[in-house]
Design the sequence.
């Protein structure tokens, strides 16, 4: 949690891609999209491109930054700069290692919180 994480997210929209239900205490409509949440007055994710089928964003998380509770449609993620982080979701809270150069094909995420 001492390295700045840098990610590129590509979301491809289509009939099969949608947000899932959120945790029991929160309705799906109450969980904001990853691009809309802020931490300490800043949005960690910047939209680089969007059309009717694709959205590309760059997310940067300095040491200690929190990507507050948010949701994602299915996405492809490429890690520009990795390190150790903490993830909280419906499975609980856990430490994760994210390798620089990793490529992730992620299913829809109804909610999670990411801490560098």
Sequence:
């Amino acid at each position: 949690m001492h390295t700045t994480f840098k990610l590129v997210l590509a979301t491809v929209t289509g009939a099969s891609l949608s947000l899932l239900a959120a945790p029991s205490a929160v309705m799906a409509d109450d969980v904001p999209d990853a691009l809309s949440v802020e931490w300490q007055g800043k949005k960690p994710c910047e939209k680089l491109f969007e059309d009717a089928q694709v959205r590309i964003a760059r997310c940067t998380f300095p040491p200690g930054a929190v990507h507050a509770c948010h949701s994602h449609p299915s996405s492809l993620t490429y890690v520009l700069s990795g390190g150790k982080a903490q993830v909280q979701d419906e499975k609980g809270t856990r430490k994760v290692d994210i390798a620089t150069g990793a490529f992730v094909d992620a299913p829809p995420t109804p909610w999670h919180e990411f801490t560098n």
Remarks:
- The mean pLDDT is 80.
- The beta strands are 5-12, 45-50, 54-61, 66-72, 75-81, 83-89, 92-98, 103-106, 109-115.
